[in-house]
Structure prediction request, 208 residues.
Amino acid sequence: MDLKSLISDTAEKIKSSNLTIEKLELNLNGTGVEIRNVFEAQSGISLNEEMTELYSSFSDIDLQWSFKSDKSYYGAFTMIPLLKSLELHKNIIQNYYDAVEYAEDCQNPESVLKEIENYYPMFTFNNGNAFCIDKRNCSIILYDHSVFEFYDSNSNGKLIATDFTSLIEKWSKVLFMEQFWWYSDCMGSDGINLSGQMFTNFLNEVKL
Prediction:
């Protein structure tokens, strides 16, 4: 799967639609082999062929859009640089230590730490959430920034896609919609469920 072309084609589809582009930045410098090696060594994650090709073409991408009709919709595809992923991983761990003494609703904070130690953010959202690679199996999971505030109801660790390529393939079909669909029927046992009602309503609205 040529992820670079898929992302570029999706960006063009967004630009030619009736969506409002809020931000579009493509860093075409690419990520050199030395940086990729640093990421793999420090994270313990081996980039597959598709990811290697993508990061060789783009070091980061920031695409945000909005659409308003009877209901407002938003999209965000903010792919961060690999070195930034390492930095945010450390921040997630530090957030745990900063918050754990105040996390009265968190029954097993140690179990949360064991989970988030495996999370390396690849896509970030303005509210503090992120799609992360889980270093244990390279699946894509949700890091919920409110994990210590609303432990009983948060979606931290929810499976978004079985792997990075699957995430891009499925997410691109709904134009990288944000809208917190991961709390809805748009999620299935293997992650994104494209037949979810929110996705269906959105695609009908924008006539895609």
Remarks:
- The chain has a mean pLDDT of 89.
